[in-house]
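Running this now, will post back.
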Amino acid sequence: MKDVKVYKTSILYSALLHVLVLNFLFFSFNFYKKVNYVSQSSVMKASLVELPKPMLPQENTKKEIVLSQEEKLDVKKKPPLVEKPKPSKVIEKPATEVKKLVLEKSIKIENKKTKIEKPVTTKNEIKIEKNKIKKEEKEIEKKAVMMKQQQAQKKMEEKLWAEQLAKEEKQLTLTKEQQAQGVVNKYNALILQAIRSRWILAESYSPDLSAQLLINLKSDGTVLNVELIKSSGNEGFDRSARAAVYKASPLPVPPETDLFNQMKVINLVVRP
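Update: finished.
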């Protein structure tokens, strides 16, 4: 409220000052007219005299001075309005866009460089390059053919080596079998000799008689069982043959397990 009252009083004072200034200007103007009239009449009677120039600029300056004073008063009474500075909006681009722009610029620069630095090839250089490529291709083909030949030769050698090895193994096996068979035959002869030493034959038996026996043995040569597979037709002969086998137990057998396994079941044909 106090500020409002002060403001109203200041308006009244300024209005009074304006009125006073206007009155002053009005009276000064009338006075000037009267002086001018008197001077003109006196000049006509006596001589030519230069009229003084009207003092309008002074009035204007006074008016301006008065106005400036009033404005100063108004400025003193009214507090100056200070505009708050508006915050400047800084639009920041995201880091990905900045990186993209940098990459695009760098790519453009690189493309320009490559375009500038592109060498100019002549026909002779192109021909030399083509011949070089053809030569390299021929070398590659040659190496590939040589490699194929080497692989084929290696396969053939491996095949021959495998065949030779198989042949040798077969021969070795055959030799071992022959040797084993020779050992078996030897022990078969010894067994037959041991049985004959225990067999009592009657003089009445025909030399054409023969019986087939199946003998089961233990690892130490002990006879487990004697089975008549094929009879001679003479019961006495067959019975005496079986009895001779039991009497000859234990029979001679080889100490090697693999050889004994070939002899643990003996198929024996006996004759008088």
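The chain has a mean pLDDT of 74. More later if anyone needs it.
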